[in-house]
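Form 7-S
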Amino acid sequence: MSEQPNTTTYKDSGVDLGAGEETVRRIKSLVRSTFGKNVMSDIGMFGAFYRASFKGIRRPVLVTSVDGVGTKLKVAFAMGRHHTVGQDLVNHCVNDILACGAKPLYFVDYFATGRLSPNVGEKLVGGFVRACRENGCSLIGGETAEMPGLYSDGEYDVAGTIVGVVDEGKIINGKNIKKGDVLIGLPSSGLHTNGYSLARKVLLERFSINEYFQDLGTTLGDALMWIHRSYFKSVYPLLSRREIRGLSHITGGGIEGNTMRIVPKGLGLKIDWNSWERPALFRLIQTTGNVPEDDMRRTFNLGVGLILVASPSTADRLVAALKKKKEKPFVMGEIVRV
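Output:
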């Protein structure tokens, strides 16, 4: 009697379909909790349906942004902390379309890993869900890909796409910015999701991720994992005043690099770099790694997460309104002719 040949299954190759099914089972109720009345489909279909009905918007324009979390994920892996990564990603995307004057409608994610852990997947999606609820948008779909050999054990990558809406007549694109306009900064909550390759090289080659720093008030790992905050609830209600001429979300490229994206030709920035106190985490990076000031300014937000551009005549009112929202705004410069 001849021997039966050895069999090889999909699971033997490293892909566990059962883990994927278990992950979906765990996250279904979480995801449904974000659904608004415009969501027309459940998760698991080939496409997600969203009813294009926008009350109070005469000429709706859809605004889309896609992003990732970068090498901040390396810190998350080291700490075994995954729930805040989802919040980082959603909030980052929300801020990007807020800078255009849009409010978020729905979010979809892409989660790729070498070996799927339902526990990690559940925590990650739980972060998406929490941030979507806080920003008033729906998590309507996503993709989970298990790709053994492409990612190391315990590691993954994640990306997200957000879709929002703005009335065509209320789009914020900086075209009305003028010489003499004021730059109003809003504080960041740490590094947000940019500059981690430099921060990790400087700090984690010298310090333990669990080392406590008095100036930070926490461990190094906790400080590096501070959640990328959303400015939607503070800033979006102020857009109806039509007093904000430009919004700059400070991500990769720093304060100047991002804000110049919305400044009309012939104009530039005059920034008072001493108008706010640089947070301790940035000071620690610079002194530990002897990082040049120019590199600090190009790489990090330096404690400024969002910049509003407004005329001098409306700046005081905006600052007062932001303070009522429990923000800590500060005037940090002006628009000049170049």
